[in-house]
Amino acid sequence: MSTPLVILLAAGAGLVWGTHAWWMSRRLQSARRDPLTGLWTREAFTRRARRLLRNPRAVVLLADVDKFKRVNDTHGHAAGDALLAATAARLAHAVGRSGVVGRLGGDEFAAVLIDGDDTAVARFAVLSRVLARPVDLAPEVHTTVSLGWVHRADHPTEDLSGLLRRADEAMYAAKRGSGRVRRAGLMRLLPTVAGRRAGRRGAA
Predict the structure, then answer these.
(1) Tens digit of pLDDT for each residue in 127-177?
(2) Residues 200/106, Cβ–Cβ less than 8 Å
(3) Which pLDDT tens digit goes with each residue over 61-73?
(4) Is 53 helix (H, G, I), strand (E, B) or coil?
């Protein structure tokens, strides 16, 4: 077999394997994304969040759509899906490319971001106003989104699971507050059962 033919065959084989590897990578990436919102799934979010938590200036945020079942029951699942998609897009935009946002399941979202300039609380106030805006695809839906967050530096020995539980407690305190979009910092915690709010599943 001539040398040029060998080179051509080798190049062709390389192209085939390169295309296959790219296709497999795209499939794997797609499997790690929530199909409705495009956010990372729980497992993919957890992996990226743990890396960010090596930075003591990290902040863990939880967001939960209030009375989401009522939205589905009253306005239909299409309106509920539109609300979830809009909430996810607004969260992702607020956190930016330096952080990570995931859909933990249902109407619950989580994020980890680095508060390098001590502006996280102010950014969450802006986020609250953004989340309060009507959804274009479901203008008839009126609900609230509760936020809870915790600073990594306040609990340096906690892992991601523990920080998510603390943010969850803060979010529960937010649900007892007032306003169109409710939010609470860590200092507004309510009593919990076994380290978590009663009736909620454990964090990843």
Answers:
(1) 988 887 878 767 777 777 889 999 999 999 999 999 999 999 999 888 877
(2) no
(3) 999 988 888 888 8
(4) coil
> Which of these, 119, 109, 121, 87, lies nearest to 164 by C-alpha position?
109
54 vs 203, which has greater pLDDT?
Answer: 54
Compute the distance between CA of residue 24 and CA of residue 168 in angstroms, rounded to an integer.
Answer: 36
Residue 181 makes CB contacts below 8 A (sequence gap 6+) with 128, 129, 131, 132, 144, 145, 146, 147
First to last CA, the chain: 57
H or E element, residue 76? none
Which residues are marked as active site?
Answer: 107
Token pair recorded at residue 140: 């008839």
**Alpha-carbon span 204 to 164, nearest angstrom:** 8
Please, are residues 146 and 178 in contact by the beta-carbon 8 Å criterion?
no
Dig out the tokens for 75 from the structure. Answer: 């306005």
Tokens for 47? 């992996």
Quote the pTM value: 0.73
Identify the residue whose tokens are 């106030």. 125
What token pair was written down for 72? 């589905």
Specify whether the CB–CB gap between 181 and 129 falls below 8 A: yes
Report the Cα 11 to chain-centroid distance in Å: 42
